[in-house]
Amino acid sequence: MTITRRALCTIAALGLAASPTWAQDWPAKQPIRIIVPYPAGGNADSAARAVAEAASANLKQTIIIDNRPGASSIIGTEAVGRAPADGYTIGVVSDSHAINHAMAKLPKAADVLGAKVPYDALKDFVPVSGMIIVPLVLVVNPKVPARTVKELVQLSKDSKSSGLNFGTMGTGSPWFIHMHQLRGLTKGEFVDVPYKGLAPAATDLLAGQIDTMVMPVHYAQQYIKAGKLVPIATLGAQRHPLLPDVPTVAESGYPGLAISNYLFFVAPAGTPPAIVEKLGREFNAALKQPAMKDKLGISGDPYPAESAELATRVRRDIETYGAVIQATIK
Questions:
Q1: Scanning 129, 305, 306, 312, which has the fewest C-beta atoms within 10 Å of its C-beta?
Q2: Burial code of 147-182, b = ≥16 C-beta within 10 A, e = fewer?
């Protein structure tokens, strides 16, 4: 009889659950490893290091960061899923976790993502805690004669150049999904211009090579203050404290859209619940420290969240993003 890896995880979890002493003794060895499927120096890496530093002090345990970027975060996330379910390997995932799961159903998913998705986002991982929330803002180059969402939509329809260009961070990226959600909601005639990252897209927006894009609030703020970009609307449910005078998309006349990027911690499926709970408690406590907001800087806002809440959010996003993917990627 062949026993699958998933079955082995289940058997292991049952055995570990029957031995509460083992879980209570955790952590009993050094170190805890956090796999970040993004390059060093980026938002995810910086935020993970800030949380790890604060949590390691409470756990009295060394926590190291292991950067494994590539293939739309698939390489690093696969490494987390294949790691022993003992609480010593944790991973960071983002919106892309749900997006990649939905994308995997497409015939050409591997071509778009750069690799096949060799895991199940729901079955092969268990959420541990939140990490950061990345609020978003719709911005335009100052030369674009629109200062509200309705004006921008009308301009896209009136444009003699067959619509306005908007930048995204590549097909299937969270920004691609969010901009297409916005286009679908407003019925604007925006032309997608894909980029390989936020920096090159922002460079072209600042230069006027593209007209508009969705950008993280913390990242955009420096350019907004300098008058190099104009904020049109934030995409969250409420206005953001950094941009208190900028209305939300809903306030701008298009209700039904309240989105942000987010990143959170996961463990391999089969990790004992007592360990997941302890890790989540320590990570969330670190995120609630008064100094954490400053430590995160432009990475985003602290996002303490429980495992069950995150599991619900991933399932919801798989359904929501899946609908956008089916409608936009053929």
A1: 312
A2: eebbebbebbeeeeeebbbbbbbbbbbbbbbbbbbb
